[in-house]
Design the sequence.
């Protein structure tokens, strides 16, 4: 069953285009992570936060990615890393046009 | 500019099909909220959490929805409500097939 992984952490930049320049190689590498279907990259200069919303093909792959990614973020000096793995309620999501194929 | 709203809160059910039955009318009403593009409904019986990932057309609509929804959840007796509004880094999201049209 597909799982949604929600991650955020304290972040003081770079944001926007500079974030893109700094992290495009990392983004490309994420396509090679087992079970990744997609990632939405989130950022807030106002709140000094960044993170991601991920869809994985199953729970084991979501858990493995979260463990690896948390360690990587910690190694980058980032803190207050919060990761949560959720089921998607597909019936309710379909009512609201959520972009997740069955 | 589109904004992503991430919400979660403590939740002890109903989950899965029973959640669908309980909340389908609420889901239908959410389609009428100003600026809503989509919502992904999240739930975790394991973690005793539920929430949603929303895409809105702009920040004012995301903020207004978060204020209204937080009050509604509180009135339903739910607690530890956490809402965060993010920009989407479109370039990085495109690299990872994130389902957000430009």
Sequence:
């Amino acid at each position: 069953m597909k799982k949604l992984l929600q991650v955020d952490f304290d972040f003081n930049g770079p944001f926007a285009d500079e974030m893109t320049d700094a992290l495009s190689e990392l983004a490309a590498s994420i396509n090679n992570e087992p079970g990744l279907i997609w990632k939405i990259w989130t950022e807030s200069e106002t709140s000094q936060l960044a993170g991601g919303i991920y869809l994985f093909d199953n729970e084991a792959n979501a858990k493995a990615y979260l463990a690896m990614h948390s360690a990587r973020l910690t190694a980058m000096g980032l803190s207050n890393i919060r990761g949560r793995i959720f089921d998607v309620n597909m019936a309710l999501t379909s009512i609201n046009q959520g972009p997740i194929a069955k």
User: Anything to note?
Assistant: Chain A has a mean pLDDT of 97.
